[in-house]
Write a structure and sequence with these properties.
Keywords: ATP-binding, Nucleotide-binding, Transport
CATH class of the largest domain: Alpha Beta
Largest sheet: 6 strands, mixed
Mean pLDDT: 90
Pfam families: ABC_tran (PF00005)
Radius of gyration: 24 Å
CATH architecture of the largest domain: 3-Layer(aba) Sandwich
Structural class: alpha/beta
Order of helices and strands: EEEHEHEHHHEHEHEEHEHEEHEH
GO molecular function, one term: ATP hydrolysis activity
Protein name: ABC-2 type transport system ATP-binding protein
Organism: Flexivirga oryzae
Number of domains: 2
Amino acid sequence: MGVADTQGLTMQYPRVRALDDLTLSVPEGITGVVGVNGAGKSTLIKVLLGLLHPTGGTVRVLGMDPTVQGAEVRALLGYMPEHDVLPGDVSAADFVMHMAMMSGLPRNAARERTSDVLRHVGLAEERHRPMGGYSTGMKQRAKLAQAIVHSPHLVLLDEPTNGLDPRARDDMLELIGRIGHDFGISVMVTSHLLGELERTVDHVIVINAGRLLRAERTQDLTHTTGNVLVEVLGPPGSDRRIGQALLDRGVHAWPVGDRIEVQVERPETLDLIRDLVADEGLGLVRLQEVHHSLEEVFAQGGGPQV
């Protein structure tokens, strides 16, 4: 059993079925739930929080049924909504402290925890400013702070990188990684961008039209291909010389930009690459296993282009 589990979960609205016989398990660690807009990600989060009651199937969160134990479940969860719901005339310090106290922390403990989490998310110097003047990235950090201030067992992050520029996206993903790996809080993060999650999440769940398409560990999805990428240091055309020398010896090799990808069928191929580079008087800059990216995995498997 994971931190959240569903069995045959269905959510039927008058004109659309948001979740369709969805069976999945969210394990401990950091799990990415990926799907295009409208795939059912936000509906799933609201069901896990006990804010929506499904029309079919069962759901368990931390061993409890949120349809009948919603308050108990929410006391142990953190939630970061997708949309901007922050009060613009309130400071981050006051808001996060209020949310900590709403979660049951005494005033002094809430004040201490608020100071800690605002420092962790990078808002220590801006904590007394009204949040209405915050940038999008700062608002996302404030939403993240209130989601973790009470040290939840599981935190649900709905599209936390939405609206962020590339650097702010990287910063947010780094924060999510720290929450899951350094703080020991299980994280379920939704996104419609498959590629951005692969360096952060331990598990990937892909849903489409409310149905489960795939659920695996990230490292199993991005397995090595048995190939290596070779980069050499030398005059122009050095990479092509090494590639041709490998082909002459019956080893499959092909150019990838200014590098060579080599199919390694036997361990001796690695020794051959090293010797050829040395014989040519070149420097061996990189000899690296080739991993699939998540986007490549789904492109090759005919999966969703999300």
